[in-house]
Automatic annotation (TrEMBL):
This is ABC transporter ATP-binding protein. Residues 48-271 form the ABC transporter domain. GO terms for molecular function: ABC-type transporter activity; ATP binding; ATP hydrolysis activity. Keywords: ATP-binding, Nucleotide-binding, Transport. It holds the Pfam family ABC_tran. InterPro entries: AAA+_ATPase, ABC_transporter-like_ATP-bd, ABC_transpr_TagH-like, Bact_Polysacc_Export_ATP-bd, P-loop_NTPase, Wzt_C. SUPFAM superfamilies: P-loop containing nucleoside triphosphate hydrolases. The keyword Zinc does not apply. It comes from the Bacteria.
Length: 435
């Protein structure tokens, strides 16, 4: 049975907004005596306040960036930490890495920890890349010969050999992240902590970094804590997850279920969008009036079965007769992956469209095409010759698809839901030779 390497109990972190002091000398003295001599809690800490960043702050208000966190992480687990901006993810990692101290609660860590929380974490800008590698290794408790044994591997992974003896203050943010991650991942920590900082790197490096973290956890049995807004990376790398909301753990468990919960709690999109002519987005060439998603009975709804068509209707104004515009859609999944794009240019009627005034364009997504899930639609009005975009509306509408349990469209199998972003009904030819 795997042993626990991180144990968090009743962890809270309180921050004061605005001025640090209580506002009066007597209150400051009262707080100091209560906390430092009598061993009592801060009498002015309003621990019950939730860290809702959408609310206007009051002068001197105390908020809980984290509140009553209880968590155990086992050896070899890869824990994904997800949540909206301001949910407390980075604060939790800073507490684990001892960058800051908790207000209440305790953190117990068994093993050597390497952290990559921000661009340049642990780097001295006046020191060269080589010197920073030795400094970081020494801080982690490694001997000089241990660091030297890993030096070439770190430099090769980071791809900064040419600049190894250059002060890191002259590095770009991407180079700094590459070297920082290479140090953190290769100096053999028992626990690797990585924040969203990897997003600064290019696509090639991100892929390499994910692969390295998989190797560290799978082959070396080390523990990884990973914060990211990229749900695809989280799902690929992690086997367990927690979701934070306003500093509180609201969901914990198998990573796919946690991701689904997170995506479901995101703002729901409506199946229709309307503008008045006066407030319609666009320019002198074209303006968007409305977007609707309707079923085969022409009813606006955001719920569809997998075996029924989905019709997206777009109404817009052509303001100039000589301007041959086209409606454009991008269909995205809940994780913001673009599945496909289409436009009026694909219609056989498009060549005959001319003049100005209102136009309604309809795109039909065929049945048995998209898999179960939540989808959103980007809508734009543009022109191909020359290439111009007159207006664009991200997350214009949304809809949901569920499986059908009738006829031959049932897609459930013994192992659960079928994988994939699309699930078309493909044609199969079968020949059978009976014995």
């Amino acid at each position: 049975m795997s042993k626990t390497v991180i144990k968090i109990e009743n962890l809270s972190k309180i921050y004061r907004l605005g001025e640090v002091g209580t506002g009066t000398l007597s209150h400051d003295l009262n707080r100091w005596v209560r906390m430092n001599i009598l061993g009592q809690d801060d009498p002015y800490a309003k621990v019950g306040h939730v860290n809702d960043r959408t609310q206007k702050a009051q002068k001197g208000e105390l908020v809980a960036a984290l509140r009553d966190i209880n968590l155990e992480v086992k050896e070899g687990e890869v824990l994904g930490i997800i949540g909206k901006n301001g949910a407390g993810k980075s604060t939790l990692l800073k507490l684990l890495s001892r960058v800051t101290s908790p207000t209440t609660g305790s953190i117990k860590v068994k093993g050597r920890m390497a952290s990559l929380l921000e661009v340049g974490t642990g780097f001295h800008p006046e020191m060269t890349g080589r010197e920073n590698i030795y400094m970081n290794g020494t801080i982690m408790g490694m001997r000089k010969w241990e660091i030297e044994r890993k030096l070439d591997e770190i430099v090769e992974f980071a791809g900064v050999a040419k600049y190894l003896d250059t002060p890191t203050k002259r590095y770009s943010s991407g180079m700094t992240v590459r070297l920082g991650f290479a140090i953190a991942a290769h100096l053999e920590p028992e626990i690797l902590v990585v924040d969203e900082v990897l997003a600064v790197g290019d696509a090639e490096f991100q892929k390499k970094a994910i692969g390295k973290m998989q190797d560290v956890s799978t082959n070396d049995g080390r523990t990884v804590l990973f914060v990211s807004h990229n749900m695809a990376s989280i799902e690929t790398l992690c086997n367990k997850g927690i979701m934070l909301r306003n500093g509180i753990v609201t969901n914990e468990g198998e990573i796919k279920k946690v991701i689904n919960t997170y995506l479901e709690t995101a703002a729901e999109l409506k199946p229709s969008l309307y503008y008045t002519k006066e407030k319609a987005p666009g320019n002198d060439f074209a303006k968007l009036l409305s977007v609707e998603v309707v079923n085969s009975q022409d009813i606006i709804t955001d719920r569809y079965l997998i075996d029924e068509p989905i019709r997206i209707k777009i109404k817009y104004i052509n303001n100039k007769a000589q301007n041959k515009n086209t409606a454009i859609i991008h269909v995205l999944d809940a994780a913001d992956n673009t599945l496909f794009a289409s436009n009026e240019f694909n219609s056989p009627q498009w060549d005959n469209m001319s003049g100005y005034g209102e136009r309604t364009a309809e795109c039909i997504i065929p049945p048995n095409f998209l898999a179960e899930g939540k989808y959103k639609v980007l809508v734009a009005i543009g022109h191909f010759n020359p290439n111009m975009v007159h207006c664009i509306k991200k997350d214009a509408i949304g809809f949901n698809i569920t499986d059908s349990f009738s006829g031959n469209t049932v897609r459930k199998n013994v192992g659960g839901n079928w994988p994939g972003l699309v699930r078309p009904m493909l044609k199969w030819n079968i020949s059978n030779q009976l014995l």
